[in-house]
Amino acid sequence: MESRLLEILVCPLCKGRLRYDRERQELLCSADRLAFPVRDGIPVMLENEARDLNDAENQAEAQ
Length: 63
What we know:
Elements: H1 3-8, E1 19-21, E2 26-29, E3 34-39, E4 42-43, E5 51-52, H2 55-62
Antiparallel strand pairs: 1-2, 2-3, 3-4, 3-5
């Protein structure tokens, strides 16, 4: 994922900053505890496509 794209993308719910998980191909929102998938290099920024982050993932992502 291009860093320029990551700089302008925000969470569609809270408008907060997202972090990119390269291994899982997801954009993570700490505030809403959601992971948005990146499919074929395209972020899918739909709430119904996002998965909930469990507590362990959320804490690891915050570090």
